[in-house]
Amino acid sequence: MNVLGNKIREERESKQISQQDLVKDICRENVLKMIETKNRCDSKIVFHAICNRLGLKVDECIEYTDEEKLSLLLDKIEVKCNIFEHKEAYEIICAYELGEVQQNILLMSQYYYYIGITALVGAKNLSLALSYLNKGLEYGDNVNIYSILSVNGLGGVYEEKGDLEEAKIYHEQSLRLVKNYVGNDVSVKYKIYFNSARFYSEVKEYQRAIEICEEAISLNEEKGTFHHLEILYYELGFNKHMIGESAVIEYKMAYYLAKHLKNKHVINVILDDAKRYNLSFQVDEDGVI
């Protein structure tokens, strides 16, 4: 991998550490010389150890390509969206200068999905969200997971516009596409189920919302995964409660999963529901139901 050898050398010299002392019990001196003079290191483990010994952050010492930089940024954006910090995510992605990555279809589809969905949820800018999400579809001719998410996101745009019939078309289309999706079982695909279940809950089609949640939960069970289970169980519990069914188990599952994942947004929503709907469980001072 390409690294910032000058930064390693300057930090080593500023701390008056010899090459021999720096690489002791890590690697041979010629490996460090390659790093400092050729900006190359073939071992991530070695490079991490050298950076740690110098007190440097590894990410700040690697020379990333434009594609790698964007991929790292989008990973950060995804984490923020997962905990409902869309406004901050939108500010971060808008400040990023897009490099030479236009030929990477999957990455561009991912970029336009995230700038679109954060424009919708974080900035409340429907026209920008519509533009970005449609742009994401242009990079999704081969139907990747982010083009499907863009279809799903368009359902959210039309919901905000008040065009519920159009919103329903996009949500159902995204559900059909994700059901036939044959790519890797990435966690973001379960957001499609959650978003669509939340939409049907908003329009008071509670049974349809329950069906969608149960399908996503069963898929997780089948594959032995835990993708977005805290929000899926919450949505399942809420909708079961709205049709008069007991939802204590689902709410408890959602609460403990959210607590484990430190998803404060979901925890607060559950506690608000408990008060608003007089649900038959309470949380004590230690956060235990």
Short description:
The protein is mostly helical and 289 residues long.
Second-tier CATH architecture of the largest domain: Alpha Horseshoe
How far from one another are the termini?
49 Å
User: CATH fold name of the largest domain, please?
Assistant: Serine Threonine Protein Phosphatase 5, Tetratricopeptide repeat
Residues in helix, %: 55-70%
Helix and strand succession? Answer: HHHHHHHHHHHHHHH
Uncertain segments: none
Q: Roughly how many Å is the radius of gyration?
A: 23 Å
What's the structural domain tally?
Answer: 3
TPR repeats: 190-223
Domain HTH cro/C1-type: 8-61
GO molecular function: DNA binding
Pfam family, one: TPR_8
Explain what the structure shows.
- With 289 residues, the chain is mainly alpha-helical.
- The protein folds into 3 domains: 5-61, lambda repressor-like DNA-binding domains (434 Repressor (Amino-terminal Domain), Orthogonal Bundle), CATH 1.10.260.40; 65-183, Tetratricopeptide repeat domain (Serine Threonine Protein Phosphatase 5, Tetratricopeptide repeat); 206-289.
- The chain has 15 helices and no strands.
- The chain has helices at 5-14, 19-22, 29-38, 44-54, 66-82, 86-95, 105-121, 126-138, 145-161, 164-179, 189-202, 206-223, 229-242, 248-260, 264-276.
- The radius of gyration is 23 Å and the shape is globular.
- The relative contact order is 0.06.
